[in-house]
Specification:
By secondary structure, the chain is mostly helical. It has seven helices and six strands, in the order H-H-H-E-E-H-E-E-H-H-E-E-H. The chain has a two-stranded antiparallel ribbon. Strands 3-4 form a two-stranded antiparallel sheet. The structure holds heme C (HEC). Heme C (HEC) binds at residues 95-96, 98-100, 111-113, 118, 120, 124-125, 128-129, 133-135, 144-146, 150-152, 156-157, 165, 169.
Length: 176
């Protein structure tokens, strides 16, 4: 984002300098080639240059910025994100990413289990958020359950926020 803006500013400045130089005839060769003999011609040439540098310097980066924002927010790993899931994504980064790995949110926490591997259901995530997590020892093969009062604190988020996170994580875990 910042990079795109810097590029936009640089390109605009260079184009403006070239347009200015050409209209003043200071680049000998370029000026000669571009300069026309009558006034209408040079006016046309100037407005053409303005059009080109506005187009390249402003319109193109704008299109890139808007395009980028849409595509990066609307889906990850082929999973389309609903508005609620986009909220869940932000909340996950804020509240869960420090402890959990989830590639779809660029989270690399190592304290809790890797959610891309675990791929928990929405219900299991909601239960974990509400009660916290201390894994109950279970028979091999059956899914682990969280008992609460463990290493993962309970109630980090509540209500709609918890639902948005649970929906997001259950849909994107393992995709990226
Ligand atoms: C302070 C670190 C920490 C934070 C913050 C944290 N977790 Fe955890 N989480 C853990 C640990 C540790 C475990 C595993 C506990 C265990 O094995 O006893 C865990 C377990 C889980 C599990 C597995 C549950 C199961 O059934 O095995 C899920 C799902 C989960 N966390 C989701 C989340 C979500 C969603 C958030 C954000 C709201 C979050 N965690 C925030 C540390 C954290």
């Amino acid at each position: 984002m910042v990079g795109v803006i810097i590029i936009a500013v640089v390109i605009t400045a260079i184009s403006a300098a070239i347009a200015f130089g050409a209209s003043r005839g200071s680049f000998k060769g370029v000026g000669d080639a571009l300069q026309t003999t009558n006034r209408t011609g040079s006016r046309l040439l100037n407005s053409g240059l303005v059009f080109v540098y506005v187009g390249i310097g402003i319109a193109l980066p704008l299109v890139l910025i808007i395009g980028n924002r849409n595509s990066s927010n609307a889906q990850v790993g082929g999973v389309k994100l609903s508005p609620a899931m986009q909220v869940g994504r932000e909340l996950f980064a804020e509240h869960c990413g420090v402890c959990h790995t989830l590639a779809a949110d660029n989270a690399v926490g190592k304290i809790g289990p890797n959610l891309d591997v675990l791929r928990p259901s929405e219900a299991r995530i909601l239960h974990t958020i509400a009660y916290g997590c201390l894994q109950k020892p279970v028979a091999a093969g059956s899914p682990a359950t969280c008992l609460g009062y463990g290493v993962m604190p309970a109630d980090i988020v509540q209500g709609q926020q918890a639902k948005d996170i649970a929906e997001f994580v259950s849909k994107v875990a393992g995709h990226s």
